[in-house]
């Protein structure tokens, strides 16, 4: 005779809360105190951010200094162009806006599975980056020329991030493959380069490429400081991403590579069609995390004199009229970072579920 074990019914929500938070008198007191603190904090933030906040910039900065006034969001309404576009000429800021939308379009297209091919995805990134650069730089198609010295704000942050990933990711794959080479002098030399870059802080690399490198190069190879900084950032990104890719390659069963060699499949076909697709799937969580870190690390370029979004935020409240409103400016910038980073991390979680990364 078969005995069927019946699962006990799940406790009700009230019973579950009682068990979790009010099991004993002391636990009930602590739970009520924590709830009171949470309600107080939430109400204080809500009152400051919305209920008593000042939104109308026409009232001027003095309206934010009246007793009982909350957040001074009028500084954002009055100075948002500086935060988003930096020193870019006012009449040409539509180009910066289109450039930002181009980055969003690149990201959206990269998230569509139909573009996940070896030809389409690089084409999207190369074409999108070229359009982004054309809109900012100008000089052709009737667009006035705007030098890199006037680029700033969010658009400069996005340009550095996109360029770093576009250059650093293929370089990371190359470094990972070179470190797995069967020739000791290639693998060891690549390992020294990767470990040497990873042992240095990003600020020191940016400072070296921006300030020190021109003293060691001939005048014809110096180039613009912005592109030297992007190369330094891409090198730093590639060193970390190369180890992530190499870890993904190590997760591919050795027998698959041996079987493909026995079938006479060439090295590049083995890498591009068998090894790398599985390696990138294995390395997906760490890769998404590296993209998130890279986006946030773009703020470090302010150290070498670039007018990115944080520096633009400093300029937005750096006048005598709005000097007191720095909290609101930084909250607005933090919200921008949050939107980009949270969207990227949520998409990474979606990919993990779609590909069943880590499933047993």
TrEMBL record:
Membrane topology: Multi-pass membrane protein
Domain of life: Bacteria
Subcellular location: Cell inner membrane; Cell membrane
Transmembrane recorded as keyword: yes
UniProt KW Protein biosynthesis keyword: no
GO cellular component: a single term: ATP-binding cassette (ABC) transporter complex
Name the UniProt record assigns to this protein: Amino acid ABC transporter permease
Keywords attached to this entry: Cell membrane, Membrane, Transmembrane, Transmembrane helix, Transport
PANTHER family tied to this protein: INNER MEMBRANE AMINO-ACID ABC TRANSPORTER PERMEASE PROTEIN YHDY, MEMBRANE COMPONENT OF AMINO ACID ABC TRANSPORTER
